[in-house]
Amino acid sequence: MKLKSLVASLCLTPLLLSNAFAQKTTEPEEKQVYLYEAAQSDLNLASSYKQLIAPVLDKAEWLASYGTASPAQIEEVDGVQYWVFSGCQPHNCPAQSYVAMYEPKQKKMVAGALITNEYAELDMKRSEIHWLGNAELEFARILAKYFY
Fold first, then answer.
1. E strand or H helix at 54, and its extent?
2. pLDDT per residue as tens digits for the range 105-123
3. Do 96 and 115 meet the contact criterion of CB atoms below 8 Å apart?
4. Span 133-144, pLDDT tens digits
5. Left if phi > 0, otherwise alpha if psi is -120 to 50, otherwise beta: which for 107?
6. Please, what are the domains in the chain?
7. What angle do CA 58, 130, 72 make, to 5 degrees?
């Protein structure tokens, strides 16, 4: 009986260790950054965000509190890294969402979009995009990946 336990342990140990190693190597190396948290520690980011959303704040007051957010994603345009933040209206994500693109070296929001959707039951009837900041084509292509 002891021999069977020993053999089973010897056979399972490499599998368990390889599984633990695989989990460790797939974890993100950096802490996830959320817009709300980043704005608390970086007043330039907070100020730049407020300027970016100012034109649409009357259409989506919830933007002032950052909404229900996802962690930043890193995107690159012409060798420059940007943080792309996205979020949606609390308790009504399908109705409104946003994307904001931040350039950390210059400490400013460069582009963004507010997406407003209208539904009839489960069918989307209308969608409107309000472009914010510098909506040049390269930025718009990146922002569009986060719309829905």
1. none
2. 999 999 999 999 999 988 9
3. yes
4. 998 999 999 999
5. left
6. 35-144 (3.40.1420.10)
7. 95
